[in-house]
Amino acid sequence: MTTEMRSTDEDIDDQLYNRQRYVLGDDAMKRLRKHHVLIVHAGGLGIEIAKNIVLAGVQSVTLQDTINTSMLDLATQYYLSEEDIGKNRAQCSLEKLRALNDYVKVNVSIQSLSDCSNEYFKQFTCIVLTECNLDEMKKMNELCRINNIIFIMGDVYGVFSRCFVDCGQDPFTVYDKDGEQLKEVFINHVSPEGIVTVAGDERHPFQDGDIVLFRELVGLEHLNQCERKIKDINIHQFSIGDISSLGGEYKRGGIAREVKQQSTMDFKSLNEQIHDPKILTTDGSDYWTKTITGEFWSWLDRADRFTDYVIAFSIYSYNAFCSENLLS
Amino acid sequence: MFASSSTSENSNLSINSIGKLPEESSVLVVGAGGIGCELLKSLALCRFGSIGVIDLDTIEVSNLNRQFLFRREHVGQPKASVACDSIRRICPSIHIEPFHGDVLTDPRFDMSFYKQYDLVINALDNVQARQHVNRMCLLCSKPLIDSGSTGYNGQATLIFKGRTQCYDCIEKPKQQRTYAVCTIRNTPSQPIHCIVWAKFLYNQLFGDNEDPNNEDVTPDSDDPENANNELENKTNGHHRVSTRDWIHKEMEEFDPKRIFNKLFFDDIIYLTSMKNLWEKRRQPIPIEYGKACLVKEKNQNGQGDHDESTMPKITDQRIQSISDYVQMFIDSVNDLKQRSDKQREIALTTKEPTFLVWDKNDDADLRFVTASANLRAHIFGINLTSKFDVKSMAGNIIPAVATTNAIVAGITVLQARKILATLPRLSHDHTLTSINHLTNVFISTDRKTGGIIQSIPLEEPNQSCIQCSDLEQPVRVRINMSLFTVSALYERVIRNHLKMNKPDVIIADGSGRILISADDDEDEQMMLKTLDQFKLMNGTILLCEEDYADDTNAALTQNMKIKLMLEHTDTIKDIDDYIIVDGHVIGEIKQSLKRKLPDVDNDDDDDDDNIQHLDDYQNEINIVKKTKRLSTTPNEHNTNTNNNSGAIHMLR
């Protein structure tokens, strides 16, 4: 039933993607659709990631797994059922994943990571690892950094989870930090000292450091089409610094609009981070928890491979577990 | 049994807790959309004993992007049924039942329906349905998890009767922003004002003539800022006529160019004559059809122009030139005129309406609003808006992605499991302390607050909340709402059966509407109308209230309040028939004493502005309030709401 649908370069299928376009923006959607994603291991986490990425609309998704379905998988991997026990997890999930989005090419591989050449990985723009051990993760991360492939690692243990992202060794450009509409105000007055008073009762939307562009000012024509960095004064006013050198005097009119600033981010490799991790917790929990959690993960990585039972048990007694084992 | 080993992972969570396991529990899920699909998946994986799913919708293509239980071949089928089929494929042994119906009005969903379940979860997209389910859960004493999401934000909040705030304890900010009349008609300053104006214009030209909410779009000379304007007498009086009337009077032949000039030239000239308005504001610059056609350069105001990232724009995201919008206006007006004429013809022989209703998915409708709004914005020096953005703003589209819904669903199921574990404690302790280890959870991308997921402590109920502070059971009366009249309700049930004298009857559905006012002389016409004509739902509660003099003490008045719950049934065929369910409840009606205040008018809480008589039923389009304030600041309602900084109110 699925014929391969190729969207044109110009248009995004609005009928299908409409609600998502309003969240991500068309810029993001267009970039998304150029990606070839590799997801390693088709367990509960892997399949959830695959489901979301296929729905979002990338170019292709490859699901790679060597592991066969076991009873434990049935608790979290919803595309596997009892008759799949003993069969390769990725292969069993393929058809259901494909059915999620006609625009995405979904492939399956049953090779192990160590059997794949570096050339094989270079076809991907993004590689997501789940259920891997630390050595595998470090190796893959190095490969990704060299080849400018986005590297993401994620794992779930009971109610605990972790995630690591590395967008490559080159600086990463952020074109639009908040994706919001451009903020704009009508101007009531501009003093020679550069104090701008906005029109209306509403609070002006700008913050310290924002850059604004002026237009339609009457009397201060030299300020039109100029960009100035602002300092917030109060809800109706902000300052753009002394403008007496520009000449002219404010008569009326004028509109000030935000100019979005690009910025760059630098990502550290997994190797650098793992020994001294900068941890961001999803619920903002305190430093003490962060320290323990960091140690806990380090301990996990030192172990070769762990069963889910051990982890489940340790969730309830991890305090005791950690204090005994980590401090010794 | 066989299932136990695969759930051993999950059962570890309940080793140390007393209470029900998911396998022993039943849950009702209201809504099978974005959150609903993810929720059902998680609930099924937890092996809940029994799941019920209510949804009134059928599947559309735009759902497929995140409601992953549905595929293209399912488009047009009911969501509830297809969701259940998909879940059964994931977990064949599960007991899951679909209900394709409206939770608000379907007679199946009465109190006895809710009582079958241990837990109710909302996965809805509108306030009205949430309020209704909230009421039902309060009445049946069922724990309720209210979940929701918009874009990257979401929530899973807990509602326990008597222990936590209910959904209505804190007043929610209005779903739609309302704008002052003069802002829309005279002094717009934002794109949204122009878009709202354009929608009103659509209704003036093609919409329902009888609709009282149909706002005019011509300049408003009653603008308070315009007082003392001497020029008013000079200009011709055509502005006092509504656009709709002007068209019918002035034009024998429908001429889009003349309409263009009236709206974008003549009316604007008139506006500029109201000098007071423009003392501090940028004056609008009118455009004449002939000249406007020539403006080929793109207006510099486009929002899209800031983007330097080299991605070429998709058609409907581009800002076009003024001449493009002029053409778009003329073309769409012609298209819609044709359609409107055809509609009138069709209406002669069918039950269809004589007018058009604006639909965001219709291309001509969208082009009309986009063109009109942008022409107006250009006149006032306001940013232009792409067709893509107009669709979302005019169509009240709620942005949504699969990932947020998945997170919300996951958190909701964790909440559900905690509640089940807590259930035994609830019978001993009826206060918040019995559940104060539970929290409300909010998902927000606002990193300043310290985390994506916030856990906020539960709060005590609002003492003056009408929904949950009055905890008496209602008197349930079963009638056929399409036969039973207001008069029969008042005379036979309220006065005769419940022995009330002449109470006020208020509809307690959050609207505050008065069905019967003891003071007014209700007109015969109204009393003879059947109850279904007043938009009362199955399960609506009427509050019957009156004061009467105390026999023993002249200084006191008795205040009697009875809650009447209307339940509809088609099986009653007699127009006078009614059944009181649970008759013993009447004996337990509380009566309270009130001190009579001499010489003071006790009607001071009668705020006429809030009372809506039953003829104005609120329209879904932004209602322009008759007060003449400037539009409220966006931050105003943030300071009025409670400290749950992450609270999400409008959600899909």
UniProtKB/TrEMBL annotation, chain A:
GO molecular-function terms, A-Z: SUMO activating enzyme activity
Keywords attached to this entry: Ligase, Nucleus, Ubl conjugation pathway
UniProt domain Ubiquitin-activating enzyme E1 FCCH: residue ranges: 193-260
Protein name: SUMO-activating enzyme subunit 1
Protein family membership: Belongs to the ubiquitin-activating E1 family.
Gene Ontology annotations of biological process type: protein sumoylation
Localization of this protein: Nucleus
Stored InterPro entries: E1_FCCH, E1_FCCH_sf, ThiF/MoeB/HesA, ThiF_NAD_FAD-bd, Ub-E1_IAD_1, Ubiquitin-activating_enz, UBQ/SUMO-activ_enz_E1-like
Annotated ranges, domain THIF-type NAD/FAD binding fold: 17-165
Assembly, per entry: Heterodimer of SAE1 and UBA2/SAE2. The heterodimer corresponds to the two domains that are encoded on a single polypeptide chain in ubiquitin-activating enzyme E1. Interacts with UBE2I.
Signal peptide limits: none
Cellular compartments per GO CC: cytoplasm; SUMO activating enzyme complex
Metabolic or biological pathway: Protein modification; protein ubiquitination; Protein modification; protein sumoylation
UniProtKB/TrEMBL annotation, chain B:
Native organism: Rotaria magnacalcarata
Pfam families: ThiF, UAE_UbL
Protein name, entry field: SUMO-activating enzyme subunit
Tagged with keyword Membrane: no
InterPro entries, A to Z: ThiF/MoeB/HesA, ThiF_NAD_FAD-bd, UAE_UbL_dom, Ub-E1_IAD_1, Ub_act_enz_dom_a_sf, Uba2, Ubiquitin-activating_enz
Record carries keyword ATP-binding: yes
Keywords: ATP-binding, Metal-binding, Nucleotide-binding, Ubl conjugation pathway, Zinc
GO biological process: protein sumoylation
Binding site for Zn(2+): C166, C169, C465, C468
CC annotations in GO: cytoplasm; SUMO activating enzyme complex
Residue ranges of every copy of the THIF-type NAD/FAD binding fold domain listed in the record: 23-465
Family the UniProt entry places it in: Belongs to the ubiquitin-activating E1 family.
Biased composition (Low complexity): 632-644
Domain annotation Ubiquitin/SUMO-activating enzyme ubiquitin-like: ranges: 477-552
Binding-site positions, ATP: 31-36, 55, 63-66, 79, 125-130
Domain of life of the organism encoding this protein: Eukaryota
Active site location: C182
Stretches the record annotates as Disordered: 211-239, 628-652
Record note on quaternary structure: Heterodimer.
GO molecular function annotation: ATP binding; metal ion binding; SUMO activating enzyme activity
Biased composition (Acidic residues): 211-225
Pathway: Protein modification; protein sumoylation
